[in-house]
Amino acid sequence: MKLSIIILNYNTKNLLRLCLKNLLNLKFDDTVEIIVIDNGSADGSAAMVRNLFPQIKLIISPKNVGHAAGNNLGINQSSGQYILILNTDIIITNKDDITKVLNFMNSHPDISIVGPKLLNGNGTIQNSCYRKYKFFTPIYRRTPLGELKFARQDLQRHLMWDFNHETTCEVEWILGACMFIRRDFLNKYGFFDERFFLYFADYELCNRVKRFGSRVFYFADTAIIHYHKRESAQGAIWGGIGSLFNYTTRMHLKDWIKYLLKEKKYASTN
């Protein structure tokens, strides 16, 4: 098996159906496997996969175990030399986009993670590679403080607004919505860290890759569509203060604290 495509689903039945239909239309050969993990959905996602896509391997988690643990369920039952972590809101319209990334990784054995260029639904380039977080960066991203001048400067740095997205190059970390990973690295240094429920598992894995002497790359020669929508920005009230009480905002900041504690512990023992 060359490639295992791992798709974690939680209550996104319609997106999942479109994602799977799209992938099957690419007509992969038997070197590619597709694995869906239903993460305790209540919208009939698992039944839909069984009925419409019986050829797809389906793993059912009885409850929502989070992004990291859910993807690990799929990785554990996969056999590909490479792993593609794929969100249900990703559309790959050309099989060559996958082939290009795999050929690139084959030619560069020192690269363990690759993030392809992602496009918004309107065809504009989406930010999918980033510089590292500073202490207050998550707070700036999730609260009205991000409107302050010094905060905007930090966000511009973090989001790499000065970056040429038509250039393939090494980066600090890439978005886990569409992430190619070398299995050898996962087998040697571990899967996603399951202490992170919704955020920072991709960030932590990229940092781990670099920590152990491998590299993370952004790959520009693709045109993969990501219909991404930041739900944490919805429903803000009182000039944005309401976003502080949004579920995804709370989870983002909670996982950031977990990451900081992990890094503190690592620094104290090394």
Order of helices and strands: EHEHEHEEHEEHHEEEHHEH
CATH C-level: Alpha Beta
Largest sheet: 9 strands, mixed
Q: Provide the CATH architecture.
A: Alpha-Beta Complex
In whole angstroms, the N-to-C terminal distance is 37 Å
Here the CATH topology equals Spore Coat Polysaccharide Biosynthesis Protein SpsA, Chain A
How many distinct domains? 1
Q: What fraction of residues sit in β-strands?
A: 15-25%
Number of strands: 11
Unreliable sequence segments? 230-242
Question: Helix/strand-derived class?
Answer: alpha/beta
Look at the structure and name the CATH superfamily. Spore Coat Polysaccharide Biosynthesis Protein SpsA, Chain A
- The percent of residues in helical segments reads 25-40%
Could you characterize what this model shows?
The protein is of the alpha/beta class and 270 residues long. The chain has a single domain, classed as Alpha-Beta Complex (Spore Coat Polysaccharide Biosynthesis Protein SpsA, Chain A). It has 9 helices and 11 strands. Strands 1, 2, 3, 4, 5, 6, 8, 10 and 11 form a 9-stranded mixed beta sheet that branches. Strands 7-9 form a two-stranded antiparallel ribbon. Helix 1 links the parallel strand 1 and strand 2. Helix 1 runs parallel beside helix 2. The longest helix has 23 residues. The chain is globular. About 5% of the residues have low confidence.
